[in-house]
């Protein structure tokens, strides 16, 4: 022990040790540049556009390892051009070779979403078949872009066939899937079909969510039934569900469209003071619609309220307020 202690004592006092410490490079090694999500998207775009799909595969793998997950721009190189078919076939070839699990599953889901954006739902369903045969983790989320696209295009029968396809793969139909149908029917004001969707949801023991109620409010407004829309809003509040800004916008738009100007102001003021962003959206939207209808008296009252509450106004509303309220009151 004495020998060991003497060794450390001598080493501590050693000029050599002091010189060694003084010559250590105190500059840390520069960290390697970590690519961002946008950089990965750009690299995949370049590789896909040039036909280098092995590079696409490698990039899909490495981006997930680096926590740079796929985005709507990941497969942006895939467009409705002459090279579409060959590019899609190349992707179908390399995607099964990506890392199993989340990497592969998310790559498929991102590509399906891209195909739906291009209006290629038939090809999206082919990829569904690829995932099913390869057992690559199909889920209800995989089908959402397809159902959403078809219902938006009012291809309701085709969308229901997709639902049956989900069931054939033993994938449960979730609330979001039903909401796509409900929103489509409610947008068209088709209360009967909307009621049928709600009935199916209830039969399967599903509880409506915020989007469900938003669609129902939209349907009531499209049918000119403001009272029903208000009743649905009250039920949301009773059940403690958050109300979307868009849900309020449906009601405001219908009230102004129906000429219920005073009621529109009363409705917006009833919710004022709880959420500043909601106040800005509601009061600003109401003021804009009143001005468009040349209901300047009501519009001035709304803009005064926004000013008192310190709410942000758009440029057009600010100009109207300063010209028609501030100047005239001076």
Automatic annotation (TrEMBL):
PPR repeats lie at residues 139-173, 174-208, 209-243. It comes from the Eukaryota. InterPro entries: PPR-containing_protein, PPR_rpt, TPR-like_helical_dom_sf. The keyword Repeat applies. The keyword Transmembrane does not apply. Keywords: Repeat. Belongs to the PPR family. P subfamily. This is Pentacotripeptide-repeat region of PRORP domain-containing protein.
